[in-house]
Amino acid sequence: MTAPKEKPEQGLALFISEELKHWIYTGALKPGERLNEAALAVRMGTSRGPIREAIRLLTGLGLVKAVANRGVFVRQISVREMLEIYELRALVFGFAAERATEQINEQHKAKFEQLLDQMDQACEAEDGGSYYDLNLEFHALVLVLSNNQRAHETYDDFIKELHLYRRTYFNSPGNMRRSNAEHRAIYEAIQKGAKAKAKATAEKHVLSGRQRLLSSIDASSPLSGP
């Protein structure tokens, strides 16, 4: 890990949070590792205030977790926890896709098609980072169209717990292409008003993603623990 060469005067905490996020995603900060505010402040060349705020932002994303009387640690979950989260995600996403068939309009269709095209471009460029962010937008749009705030919040909580591990497996071009083909099938069912198909296709998409993630796990993976 190296200190950032330039730090904007405005939004310092956000800038630092992006640096820390990058370190987490690349493995420079490992699952279970404690974040030392003082050391990070020295490395970043700033006071502890922006570091503390940056850590708060990462906590909100589910990338780090505060443990009473011990400090803040990079989040880690077991394979069992991951599987349980995926099962629940599938149910909520299927519900959202079914409800989305009742809410979709021409503006939403245009947005879906834009996201699908952009994800195709990310696949061609083998840009896993961009694909992952666009993938989140696609799923978020389906949840918005569910018109159910509690479902949306619950789904967001699941996503936060899996950010680190899901982002890593999208680095595979094959995974990205299969994922987006499933996205297109979900969109087609939603825009046609096919409730049962939208629900089933959305649930299958999440469970297929779970299987792709399991297939990518190796001995060095943060998910390979007990």
Average pLDDT confidence is 88
Taking the alpha carbons of the first and last residues, their distance comes to: 28 Å
| Continuous helix count | 9
Major sheet: arrangement of strands: 1-3-2
Shape: elongated
In the predicted model, the low-confidence regions spanning at least 5 consecutive residues are: 222-226
User: How many distinct folded domains?
Assistant: 2
CATH architecture of the largest domain: Up-down Bundle
- The CATH class name of the largest domain reads Mainly Alpha
Task: Specify the biggest β-sheet.
Answer: 3 strands, antiparallel
Radius of gyration computed on alpha carbons = 19 Å
Enter the CATH topology name of the largest domain: Four Helix Bundle (Hemerythrin (Met), subunit A)
Helix-strand blueprint:
Layout (H helix, E strand, L loop, with lengths): L11 H15 L7 E2 L1 H8 L3 H14 L2 E4 L3 E4 L4 H22 L5 H20 L2 H18 L3 H21 L3 H19 L3 H22 L10
Antiparallel strand pairs: 1-3, 2-3
Helix pairs in contact: 1-3, 2-3, 4-6, 4-7, 4-9, 5-6, 5-8, 6-7, 6-8, 8-9
